[in-house]
Amino acid sequence: MAENVNILIIGSGPAGYTAAIYAARAGLKPVLYQGMQPGGQLTTTNDVENYPGYPKGITGPEMMEEFKEQAQRFGSDIRYGMATSVQFSENGFHKVTIDDTHQIETEAVVICTGASAKWLGLEAETRLNGSGVSACAVCDGFFYRGLDVAVVGAGDTAAEEATYLAKLCKKVHLIVRRDEMRASLIMQNRVKNTPNIEIHWNSITEDILGKTEVEGVRIKNILTNQLSDIEVKGFFVAIGHKPNTDIFKGQLTLDSAGYIITEKGSTKTNIAGVFAAGDAQDNIYRQAVTSAGTGCMAALDAERYLAAKESHHNTLK
Ligand code: NDP
């Protein structure tokens, strides 16, 4: 038999936990499923130093634990489990299946399933993740100030990360697999006009060097097959993100990259009672603080939606 809940939150990064804090404090009884990676992308970073309120910094996993505790303090029901399918309905009653077995019925769903960075697929990338390998310059760039780093990718993200890092680091090696960049012209020009960025064209990453921390990168020029080792302390992968929205395809309006489209200035999706927050609907800012902000918005939108429904229901009685 299906379980009825008044608000269901899917996902447990800053957006999900913040939505739970606000929903619980509004007197709703939020049930939150943590998904595949409890705590979300922040659990794969080390120190978070740009989240306001932590003047001495905090590790990503610790910060997410504190978010969770705060949500639980107000009565949120935080559970292990992953939404495996959804059936959203125009009539306002939604069904969500957890772990292929447990059915939930609810009038309000907040989607906070986040996004995942794409990786090259090298063994060293996983082994040295958090020890020099990162997918977020804004999060981790500060640790490499005055040092040499490499960025792989050629889109707007790579261009942005490279120019951001160039302000902090001694030198940035940008590894581009073709003879041109996909990034917008203005971003490309910014990269090309930054003296401490060196672009390695037609180059692919063969390996990341170092046993316990990044010491360098081995690249191969695909035109000459020549291998070169570059000494770097940080290796930033910026080859795109993939929003975790596969289960919503065909149910919600997504953009061509799979991000959920929300109404401007709100977290409403195209289905009444379904709201989206965090990286699943944001391919621009992607910060913990902006995710938390939209998580708050989603809880407020959901609360108002449920209250309006309730009042409509009462006037019909
Ligand atoms: P993109 O998909 O635009 O670019 C990915 C880049 O990574 C491409 O240049 C691609 O190379 C390269 N790449 C992919 N796989 C590999 C691989 N295995 N090895 C080496 N290189 C690889 O992703 P972005 O994250 O850059 O951007 C996503 C969207 O967000 C875009 O629409 C972008 O415009 C937007 N954005 C906008 C910003 C802004 O306006 N300030 C900032 C950041 C992003 P190739 O070109 O050869 O395929």
Short characterization:
With about 325 residues, the chain is an alpha/beta fold.
The CATH topology assignment of the largest domain is FAD/NAD(P)-binding domain
Overall CATH class of the largest domain: Alpha Beta
Give the number of DSSP strands.
21
Question: What percent of the residues sit in helical stretches (DSSP H or I)?
Answer: 25-40%
Total individual domains: 2
Main features:
about 325 residues; alpha/beta; FAD/NAD(P)-binding domain; five-stranded parallel β-sheet; binds NADPH dihydro-nicotinamide-adenine-dinucleotide phosphate
Structural commentary:
With 317 residues, the protein is of the alpha/beta class. It has 2 domains: 3-116 and 241-316, 3-Layer(bba) Sandwich (FAD/NAD(P)-binding domain); 119-237, 3-Layer(bba) Sandwich (FAD/NAD(P)-binding domain). The protein has 7 helices and 21 strands. It has a 5-stranded parallel beta sheet with strand order 6-3-2-10-21, covered by helices on one side. It has a 5-stranded parallel beta sheet with strand order 12-19-13-14-15, with helices on one face. Strand 8 and strand 9 (102-106) form a beta hairpin. Helix 1 packs parallel to helix 2 (60-73). It is elongated and about 75 Å long. Bound molecules: NADPH dihydro-nicotinamide-adenine-dinucleotide phosphate (NDP). NADPH dihydro-nicotinamide-adenine-dinucleotide phosphate binds at residues 120, 152-158, 160, 177-178, 182, 239-241, 283-284.
